[in-house]
Structures are given as structure tokens and as C-alpha cells.
Amino acid sequence: MTQTCQSSSCLNGNPASTLQCPKCDKLGIKSYFCTQECFKASWAVHKAVHSKPDTVEEGTYNPFPSYRFSGTLRPAYPLSPRRQVPAHIPRPDYVATGRPTSESKPHARTIQVLDEEQQQRLRVACKMAREVLDLTAAHIRPGITTDELDAICHAAIIERNAYPSPLNYREYPKSFCTSVNEVICHGIPDQRKLVEGDIINLDVSLYYNGMHSDLNATYPVGKIDEESKKLIRTSRASLDAAIAICKPGTLVRDVGKAIEPVAKANGCSVVRAFVGHGTHIYFHCAPDIPHYAKNKGVGVMKAGMAFTIEPMINLGGNWEEIHWPDNWTATTIDGRRSAQFEETLLITEDGVEVLTAGAPLNLD
Amino acid sequence: MDDDEVPYVCQRLRLYYSDLIEAAAPPDVAQDNKTVPLTLICGFLGAGKSTLLKYILTERHGYRIAVIMNEFSDTADIEAKSIGLSDSGGAAGELAEEYLELANGCLCCSIKDPGLASIEKLMKKKGSFDYILLETTGLADPSSLAPVFWQNSEVSDIYLDGVVCVVDGVFGLQQLRGDSSSAEEPGLSCRQVAGADVVLVNKTDIAKAADLDALEGLIAKVNPTAAVHRTTRGHLDLAHVLNLAAYTSRPHVHDHDHDHGDAATHHDDLHGVSSVILPVPILSPDRAERLERWLQTLLWENKLPDGSAVEVLRCKGVWGTVEGATCVLQGVRSLYEITRDEQRGWDGGNGKLVLIGRGVGAVECIPLE
């Protein structure tokens, strides 16, 4: 894991760096700069990181007080009680035990080709998920908690007689994922109020009529800085570049080749640990689709295959992740921000259909 | 247990490591820049794997080696298990036993193996190791584990260095042929040899010379690419099991008694597992692409161009291109990688491509037209 200079205006091209900001070190944050000059040059922007870590809301607490967080975000517990899903709504097989055992069987580990009927059911589930994401995102504003967003998302899903796929998937406690600032993915909705300047990714998955759909997008909370805008635009652009090469005959391993150059050109890096995945009968199944170039991904795209592409892009050169002790929340190792976009795609005879398509990104 | 299920072998692991007491200082972040090779150790029941591992741990070699012994058969049960810590404090090289705590749900959509993630976590706490040896049980099929670790090299500092198989010098011949009453499924012994980069024939002090020769002959037929060494009570030169670079280096193919020329060299199959060595002419870009597509059908769809079924466990190859580059193929199960080396040049002549697996006997040539 090479630490590179984290200055967005680095004078030396963000080389590998070992010098750390002493104030950050005292606060338990890892910050790397290549030289004293570079550090000085970025001080005006950098020092904001030293301001008090996000205060935990009145009546809430940080359940991991001795954990060395890489950034300023803190969990705000307690989590709200587990939400109920009306009995008439069909559950995916893993809900009873929390364990998706069917996903490790050969059928799920072989790339499936969906027939017309299955494709149509998937189309419906994807359109529904997009609706839910859009309406949940409309509630984003400073002051709302991620738990309140979870309640809105959950209500919207069950209103449509669908099941929120993440709920009890491997014992995940909530109905969708909310990933703020330095959280790469799988943030758990809690009592933290969104703050102006935050960025937040909402990741919605639902199960309807036997099909799982999956999509996510990163949104600004009020006014955000230019660097965050660049990050969000870069993430969306990298996903669009990947979608553009999807058609029968494209190799799974080439998706990363389309994504990585877009990230690199904008001073960002591509997260490696998390991959795109087949999604239809199963929540997560073959193919596994790495988002970085030079990978050993298995498979060739054929009409009827359905999967997600969901690049996670970090500001700066560090692509690695660390996990909070909640065993879900993944963050960057340097506390810098990360953004993501995801769509569920269906390969057609001559190209690709973006099943979860929504309005184009507009940050202005 | 369903053999086809992807195993989560690292459910319960016991980790031993030498030089524990020395590593008192918490690790520096800068130290993390080192990559760490991991070797998979498999072997027949009773072949002497544990003795070998104990030897590696206690011998004064100056390396910090972590040995992970898997005491339980692989299972698809992914629940987190954490186990206690015990300190044995021996003489040469302190042995400390530690159980690995496993991550839970966070690894969904992650290609990072849970066991690997735990090892990384441990290394952060205890400092980096020079080598990691992961023992699989006698029943494990290494070729189902190797791809997991090989792919994980892309997201981790830990990379797959190679697979070592320990074979019983006394009973190995019977076990491979499957005509002993040993508890092991005969086909599994062959698969273990098929997936290995190094085969250690153990107990050579008490085995009969003729048996050993026959055993080595059989091993070479199933797997012409593995290096074979004889050992006694697991004593051996560590250079034979460490720093193998078996997934990165140019493969060696032993086909001593065959003059292959332009024809494929087949070996009889043993319980369905066999090998074939195919000649590869110097490739133009078009032909190189056709070779790769043929390989993809073989590895990803498990079938030959004529539709017959095939299961490739391991493949290796080296050949030249018209532009004068050397291409090296490494593959295990459905994963493969072809690396080109322009600097190396190619000294003319045919290259070789070896397939080891089931049904490879039907492969006569690579369709390059």
C-alpha cells in the first residue's frame, strides 16, 4: 500500500510520500505530503480536516470510541429498530437465516443468460428501484439523518410490494446503504444528520417478482466544494465509459480498462476490493466485474446477461479500504472522499440496455 | 459436502508464527509496502505435511514465517468464528499460536477472500511476515483454492507464490493409482498433484527405491510442470518451497522422454486426470488472438471447439511472437493471464503450452487458423 501525496494541487505529481501532517497524526488521521513546500501550499485547504470531528448528535454515541478512524466521520448510534416488511411480500431465500447459501452454488457461480420473460421481470424491478432511489434522494438536505432516509426508502419499497434486498442480507441491519464522504460503500443508516458540504451515496436494491435490481448514485448535500464536484463527475463519467463498451463479445476483464483511465486522468484512484456483479435471480452472482485495469476477470458478454457495474472512485492515489468495526462500513485509508455510481445492465443482441437508467447527472 | 461449492476454507484457522516475541513494536504504516508471498501446502493423508510445517517453523532460517493450519474441512458456512490465543514459547524460534478472527458480511461484493482479510488484519497488528504458508487439509483440492488467492493478489499485498503437494513416498503410488484402502478418494490425489508447482516425495528414507522411481514417473505424467524433490521427515532445502514465483515466472516443462516436434504429447490419464503438452508456433497477432479465444472457451466454458467437455485444472505455457516477444501463460481453473515480455526476445522455435486436467486427452492441437 503506497501512500501518495494527498494534495490536490501537489507540486510534484503526487509521488509516494511518507511525511505526515503532525496535527493529523495527533488526531489519529493519516495525512501524507511529499514535501514541506507542498504541505505549506495546501495548508489553507488542508487545515479544515483538523477541525473537531463531526460532533455526535445529542442523545447518540459513537460505538467504537477507540477505533482509529481515517477521517472525521463517526457513526451515530443507536441504530433504529429493525424495520418490518408486511407478510404478503415475498422474501428472497436468504432472509430467514441471513445467509445467501444459494449464491455459492454452481448455478449462481455460472453466468446466466436470461430469457425474454426473465428479462422483462428484471426490467420492471429495475425501473422500480430507480423510482425509489430518485424519490429518496429528493429528501436529501442538511439536517436529515441517514436513518430518516432509510425509513423513506423502506416505506417506498414496501409500498410497491417489493422487498428491500439488503435487509438481513448477511445480517445487514437496514434497508439500503448510505455512504457519506470518506465512506466507500456499505455505510449503515444511523442518527447522524447530514451537513452542508457532505456528499452522500444512496445504494438501493430491491427484490420484486423474483428479481433483484441494484443501483446507486452520489449526491451533494447543499453546496459542495469544487473538488467534490470533480469527484462525483469523474465517478459518473467512469461508469459511462464502461457502459459504452458493453455489448456481446466484450470481455468482463476489459470493463476496468475503460474505467481506470478516467479516474487517473482526474487525479483519482479506483477501489479494487469491490466488484460489479451479476444481479437477477440472485442479489450477487457471476460474473464478478473488477473496476480496475489489468485483472483476471472471467467471462465474455452475451445477450441476455445482466449485471451491475459500480465503480468506486477515491480522491488521490490510495485505492485501499479499511472497515469500521461494524463489519460493513468501508472507508478510504486517508480520510479523503470517495464517490460511486451504479447501474444494472442487460446485454442485448447488439449492445446494452441500462435497465436502471435515470436522469443525467447535473451538479449545477 | 458439495465438491462444487466454492469453499470458504479459512473458516477456522490456527496461525503459528516464528519470531513472535521479537515483533514487540507496533508496525509502521510504511512497512506495509512489502508484498508477501503465500504458498499453499496440500498433500495426501499421512504424507507428512504437519511434520514439514513444524520443521519450517522451528528451523532457524531467519525468516518470519506464518503457518496457517486449517483444522477443519472447508465449508461454505461463512459465519465469523474467532478462536482463542495460546503461547507455546519454544526454544528455537518462538512458536505462538493465534486464531484468526474472521470478517463477516462486509465482504459481500468483495473479491477479497475472508481468510486473506483476516491474515492482513493480523499482519497489521503483528507486523509483516516474510512468508505465509497455508495448509489445506488432506481432503482439499488445491486447484479450487489457488484461483482465490491468485486473484486476490490484485487487491492485496499477499500474493500466491505457488502450490506445494506432499506425497507419501511409501503409499503414494497406491494412493495415486487408487488401489489402496486409504480413506482418500483416488481422483483427489491426482488432482492435488495436478494443481501443484512443487511435489515433495516424503519418507524417502523408508520407501523402496523402485517404488519411488515409479511414483515420480507417475507424477511427471500427471503434471509435467511440477518440480519434484525427495525429502525425509519433511527435511528439505527451504528454497524448494519458498520463493517459487510459480505464477509469475516462466514455466518449466519436463517432457524428457518425448521428442515432441510438432505433435502434441499426451499422457495416459489417471482417474480422469491427465496432461497434454502442445507445441506453439511463433504467433502472429491474429493467431495469438485465436489462441486466446480457444483458451477462453476451454477455461470459461469448459469445452473444446468440438463441444466435448474438458476441465482444465492448471495450464502453463511459453512461446514467441513474430515481433520477437516472449509470452508466458499462467492459469489455474478459470483464471488465466498471458504476459508479454518484449525485452526478452524469443530464440526461435516452437513454444509449449501445457494443459493439466480432465478430458485434455482429446486435445490434439491449438486451432490457430
TrEMBL record, chain A:
Keyword tags: Aminopeptidase, Cytoplasm, Hydrolase, Metal-binding, Protease, Zinc, Zinc-finger
Top class in the EC scheme: hydrolase
Record-level Gene Ontology MF annotations: initiator methionyl aminopeptidase activity; metalloaminopeptidase activity; zinc ion binding
InterPro entries: Creatinase/aminopeptidase-like (IPR036005), Pept_M24 (IPR000994), Pept_M24_MAP (IPR001714), Pept_M24A_MAP1 (IPR002467), Zfn-C6H2 (IPR031615)
Subunit structure: Associates with the 60S ribosomal subunit of the 80S translational complex.
EC number: 3.4.11.18
GO CC terms: cytosol
Binding site for Zn(2+) 4: D214, H277, E310, E342
Residues involved in a protein binding: H186, H284
GO terms of biological process kind: proteolysis
Originating organism: Exidia glandulosa HHB12029
UniProt-recorded name of the protein: Methionine aminopeptidase
SUPFAM superfamilies hit by this protein: Creatinase/aminopeptidase
Binding of Zn(2+) 3, residues: D203, D214, E342
Described function: Cotranslationally removes the N-terminal methionine from nascent proteins. The N-terminal methionine is often cleaved when the second residue in the primary sequence is small and uncharged (Met-Ala-, Cys, Gly, Pro, Ser, Thr, or Val).
Domain of life, per lineage: Eukaryota
Cofactor: Co(2+); Zn(2+); Mn(2+); Fe(2+)
From TrEMBL, chain B:
Domain CobW/HypB/UreG nucleotide-binding: 37-229
Source organism, top-level taxon: Eukaryota
The protein's name in its UniProt record: CobW-domain-containing protein
PANTHER family (alphabetical): COBW-RELATED, ZINC-REGULATED GTPASE METALLOPROTEIN ACTIVATOR 1A-RELATED
GO terms under cellular component: cytoplasm
InterPro entries given in the database record: CobW-likC_sf, CobW/HypB/UreG_nucleotide-bd, P-loop_NTPase, Zinc-reg_GTPase_activator
